[in-house]
Structure formats: structure tokens, C-alpha cells
Amino acid sequence: MAHRSLTLLGLESSCDDSAAAVVQDGTGGPRILSSILQGQTGLHAAYGGVVPEIAARAHAERLDLCIETALAEAGLTWADLDGIAVTAGPGLIGGLLAGVMTARGLAAATGLPLWGVNHLAAHALTPRLTDGLDFPYLMLLVSGGHAQFLAVEGPESFRRLGGTLDDAPGEAFDKVARLLGLPQPGGPAVEAAATGGDPGRFALPRPLLDREGCDLSFSGLKTAVLRLRDRLVAEQGGLRESDRRDLCAAFEDAVATILSEKARRAVALLPGATALAVAGGVAANRRVRAGLQAAAAEAGLRFVAPPLALCTDNAAMVAWAGIERARAGIAPGSDLIARPRWPLDAHAAPILGGGRKGAKA
């Protein structure tokens, strides 16, 4: 039986991107009617990372404009919406509060139902928005604050197969960029510098590949780059451009090798998976993506990587997750609260520590 059409406004403010989007799910499948994002890179550039207080203030100033623009671009009014979805966690508490309180105010003013969405669930469900994947599928979330392998078995069913024990890979890219005097964000800077570099010149470790399972670790890899840099500086009196390129290539190759090998192990833990999917900013790295594609091909699985604009933080994924929650019969609630920690798999042991861009979950 066909579902009735649902049109939701989504809001996202968990880190340093203010976003609003309108997504409609009808007889022809889901459609993104608008997706507006205002980044904050310029506000934080001088500090080498996201400053939570600055981010929260910017969200409070920008969300209303994002919402107004999203509705205008979609050609809709409040009367055309069936509900609102907002990221309620995990993330930076100030940004989450800005989004949640905005959404609660709008719900009270319009009478629209409101669904709180787990930011990681929104990422994990994105391949259903973009590619219509059937459950179950394997999802790798790789970003500045998170790294997890998830068995996505339903709109509210996520089983963690492994995750990072320390740094997330995006965080490691940022730190290596700073070590080597490259600009932020570190992912694109390291990838650009690695072009033409020799990944075999320096022997970098592959942490946890000698341990069974799908857990990840990147802190030791970052430290190994630091030691090599210091050794080169001591021996040569400085770092040559060729050294920088080769260090970046070696680091990028190590991350790609770790993720692809752990993906192979994760695939083995989810027989019957319909696909291997990936989301998060690190999914944009060409070497990482190629390694994951190879792992999927070896297992005879479809490989799905949503468009980059939907891999990184955005509000379309939040609106879609709200639609999934509504379809699953999850009751809306106007009294939702911001949750800086919100694990997807409540039965998995907590991952210790927290990333620069938010709490691990």
C-alpha cells in the first residue's frame, strides 16, 4: 500500500554548519525540494579549529535566514509542511540548543509535529534517501568527530560493529595538516599535498590491523607523522616540499588501508548486507573511497557514497530521518532536549573519549 505524501522541514546545527532543508516523500519517492547551508569556516580559521561559543552564536543568528530561504526555494509555506525534524544530538551543546529551541518555537507557533533526530542516524539513513537502499546494509561513518561501522537494520535499528578508540580519521587529517604547516580543513589540504607524493617512502604504522574486529585507532598514526617530521627537521634543518608531499601520501595511504581492511572484516559480520555505504567528510578522499570500493567489490556488494553535499553535515538528511521516524510510527514530541551524547547502539559498550567536533557516540 502506498504511503501518503510527507513533507518535512529539517534543521541541522550540531557543529559549525547552519542548515535547513525541505524534503518530500511521495508516490514518486523522496525529493529534496531545497537544501540551504551556511558554513562557518571563516569564523574559526584563526583558531585552528571550531570554537563552540562562536559556532553557537552564529547558529542563533543564521538559522532563521536558512529556514526562510529553504521554504522560499521549495516554493512552500508553513501550511504545506507535515512536520519539522531537528538534530537533537550528538554534537556541540551550544549549537544543538540553538537548533532545538528554534524548532520547538516553530512547532509551537505553527502546530506542526516535531521529531528530534540523531545526527549519526541521519548520516546512516542518507543512502535510503539518495539510492533507495533496502535494509540491512553496512554503513561506515567517517568524519571529523566520528568513525563507526554500523549494521543499519531499520529506521531505528543500528548495531555498532566497530568504532574508533581515540581520534576520528577526519580529526587525524586536521592534526596532520597542522603538523605539516598546511591549512584547515585538513582533509582536502592533505589530499592535495599527497598528489605526486610517494606513499612508500615513509613506513607508517597501521594501528589495530593485528587485532581482530572492526575497531579503529588513528592517534598513533598521527604521532608517527610527528616523529618523522621532527627527525627530518633535525637532520635537514627544515622540511622540504617533497618531504611534505611524501608524508601526506604515506598518511593518506595508511588511513585508506586501515579503513578498507576493517571494512572487509565488517562485511563478514553482516551476511545478507545489501550494500556497503559510506558517509562523512572523509568519504570525499579519493584514495579512501577507492579502497572501500575495492572492499565492496571483493565481497560482491554494491558500493554507495551519496553526493558529497549529502555526505557532510546537511539538513536534507535530517528531514529524511524525520520522515523515516514518522513512517516507523515514532511519536513526535515538542518537549525534546539537546543531547550532546546520544549513542546509536544503546547495547554497545561506550566508546571512550571525545572528538574535536563533538562527543563520540
Written overview of the protein:
- The protein folds into 2 domains: 6-132 and 309-348, ATPase, nucleotide binding domain (Nucleotidyltransferase, domain 5); 137-306, Nucleotidyltransferase, domain 5 (2-Layer Sandwich).
- The chain has helices at residues 41-44, 52-74, 93-110, 119-131, 169-179, 186-194, 219-236, 241-268, 286-298, 308-311, 316-327, and strands at residues 6-12, 17-26, 29-39, 83-89, 114-118, 137-142, 147-154, 157-163, 275-279, 302-304, 354-355, 358-359.
- The protein has 11 helices and 12 strands.
- The longest helix is centred in the last third of the chain and has 28 residues, at 241-268.
- The strands form 3 sheets. It has a 5-stranded mixed beta sheet, sandwiched between helices. A 5-stranded mixed beta sheet has the order 8-7-6-9-10, sandwiched between helices.
- The chain has 361 residues and is α/β, with parallel strands linked by helices.
- One of its GO terms (biological process) is tRNA threonylcarbamoyladenosine modification.
- Belongs to the KAE1 / TsaD family.
- InterPro entries: ATPase_NBD (IPR043129), Gcp-like_dom (IPR000905), KAE1/TsaD (IPR017861), TsaD (IPR022450).
